[in-house]
Amino acid sequence: MRDSLIYVHYEPLAHMFATAGVTASDVLTAHSRPWHHLLLLPPVSDDELIDPHTGFNVVSGQQEITTWLRSKEARNRAWLDFRHGPYLQELTPNEIAELLYLAHMRTHIQPPFYYKLQNSLVFIPQKSELATLYFRQTRQFDETLSAAIVRHLRLAANEQPFWLRLRQQDFPSVAAPVMTALYPLLEEGVMLDFGAGVFSKTNVVVPLLTPRGRFVPERQDELAQSQRRGQLELDRTSGTWRLAAE
């Protein structure tokens, strides 16, 4: 059932997004500029390059990073980007300790954005296919969430009757104003339920729900206890999105 859900809970002070249904592949799809370096947090693998200063694995090169982010390993590994290789040598023992804490406890001591690394995001997989994402700029998360929504829509569309699949499947990205309007719900924690989405030749409607308590339902009866908060609507004729809140 979780395969048909996206969940997001936003904590603005830390620029942190607790998510389900958002993957490293969505981050890669949404990122407009290529990364040159990723720092992989422990556990350390002998199969990847090891930086001698931090003792952490490093992946460098655009193609290498693309291949790694699409791999199975990326689903279970915490990582962050950094601008230039020599920047790692500037990390202090305290900063390295903070990164070790982040890798072990899967949460932050302070928001994990480092001036020396100039990193823009941090990806921390959690249990049960959840992930915590930190974005220096919320616009980058908007693009990532939009990529995840489009991916889930394509999967849900494949389950529709054939006559509804005749129309184009290149669903448009969710526009920035719609994402901005969604943030008050994200701060409370909201799910997009693609399993209950309604498809027609002209429209797609995806229900928005707030789960009971701060957890992502694993069973249908738990999902049924969620509070309806509105819906995302796509006009397939004009390719425009709108948020209808309740």
Protein model, in words:
The two termini are 24 Å apart. This protein is of the alpha+beta class and 246 residues long. The protein is built from 6 helices and 13 strands.
Short précis:
With 246 residues, the chain is an alpha+beta fold.
Summarize the topology.
Layout: E1 5-11, E2 16-20, H1 24-30, E3 37-40, E4 49-50, E5 57-60, H2 62-69, E6 79-81, H3 93-105, E7 121-125, E8 130-135, H4 138-157, H5 176-186, E9 190-193, E10 198-199, E11 203-210, H6 220-224, E12 227-235, E13 240-245
Antiparallel strand pairs: 1-2, 1-9, 2-8, 3-5, 3-6, 4-5, 6-7, 7-8, 9-11, 10-11, 11-12, 12-13
Properties at a glance:
246 residues, alpha+beta, 13-stranded antiparallel beta sheet
Count of helical stretches: 6
- In oligomeric terms, what are we looking at? single chain
- Our measurement of the CA-to-CA distance between the termini, rounded to an integer number of angstroms, reads 24 Å
Radius of gyration: 19 Å
In total, the number of domains comes to: 2
Which parts are unreliable, with pLDDT below 50 for 5 consecutive residues or more? none
Structural class: alpha+beta
Q: State mean pLDDT (0 to 100 scale).
A: 89
Fraction of residues in helix: 25-40%
Strand tally is 13
Series of secondary-structure elements, N-terminal to C-terminal: EEHEEEHEHEEHHEEEHEE
Largest sheet: 13 strands, antiparallel
- What share of residues are in beta strands? 25-35%
